[in-house]
Amino acid sequence: MAEPKKITTPLTDDVIKTLHAGDSVLITGPIYTARDAAHKRMTEALSRGEKLPIDVKGNVIYYVGPSPEKPGQAVGSAGPTTSGRMDKYTPTMIEQGMKGMIGKGSRSQEVIDSCVKHCAVYFVAIGGAAVVISQSIKKQELLAYGDLGPEAIRRYDVVDFPAIVCVDCYGNDTYKDGLAKYSKE
Hints:
Layout: E1 5-8, H1 13-16, E2 24-33, H2 36-47, E3 60-62, E4 64-66, E5 78-80, H3 90-95, E6 100-103, H4 109-118, E7 121-124, H5 130-134, E8 137-144, E9 153-167, H6 174-177
Parallel strand pairs: 1-2, 2-3, 3-6, 6-7
Antiparallel strand pairs: 2-9, 4-5, 7-9, 8-9
């Protein structure tokens, strides 16, 4: 199996074009958290002509269900949540310049088409590995919608966050095509 590709956020089109469905990656840099309630608020703000509470250009949003941190931890367990719940909001966020998403599960054809049109990528994190994933999160900061609790928008500073490219900017999708198609052994 090939070594994971090390990538740094924010993402550029040049980096995204080197990523292919099935690639393992280690992500370092800031990523942002938001789930369906935060996405709903952000798209509603855009429809009213308001600015987003964060600049999504070039950034990655992690669909995460974090648990409270214990003393000495940046975050508690931080496993991925089901990405499909964000599908109705994702094309709008990609149009705003978001370049990556991390979650679990398959995406709609509309999201895949948006990834192709706007050079974006969807990563999957391994469900059930929340404790391992949380070890790559070095710092967190609440940025917006604190009243949403775990669904609030936060910035995570991560080092070597493990993920797999699920949907690349060419429209390849490991859920539809099977991971074996993309194996580079």
